[in-house]
Amino acid sequence: MDSVNSPSACAANACGAGSCEGDRTMSRQCELCLRGTVRANTVSHSNIKSKSRQLVNLKTVRAVVDGQVRRVRVCTSCLPQLKRPPID
């Protein structure tokens, strides 16, 4: 048995899903362009820098992926690139 796909290896996985099959983690990342969060500094009037995160504007939309309708999380700049399913 392969050590990567063994249940003990999956139990030690950070997601704790228990299996490698169908492992979907919810990351703040566009599924098309892979744009993600960015670390930045917020600078005050007195020039004090504090850490902040700039999040991507993600939307969950239904799209045709490999001939199947699937929900994907994409950023708003990638929305025009998607092939949308017909509205019933």
For the secondary structure, the number of strands is: 4
Which word captures the global form? elongated
Portion of residues in helices? under 10%
Strand order of the largest sheet: 1-2
**Radius of gyration over all CA atoms, rounded:** 19 Å
In the CATH scheme, what's the topology name? Ribosomal Protein L24e, Chain: T
Number of helices: 1
Low-confidence stretches: 1-12, 17-23
Note the gap between the termini: 46 Å
Largest sheet: 2 strands, antiparallel
Element-level helix/strand string: HEEEE
- If classified by CATH, what would the architecture be? Roll
Helix/strand/pairing class, anyone? Answer: mainly beta
Question: How would you describe this structure to a colleague?
Answer:
With 88 residues, the protein is mainly beta. The chain has one helix at residues 7-11, and strands at residues 38-43, 49-54, 58-65, 68-75. The protein has one domain (25-88): Ribosomal protein L28/L24 (Ribosomal Protein L24e, Chain: T, Roll). The protein contains one helix and four strands. The protein is elongated. It starts with 6 loop residues before the first helix and ends in a 13-residue tail after the last strand. The model is unreliable at 1-12 and 17-23 (pLDDT under 50).
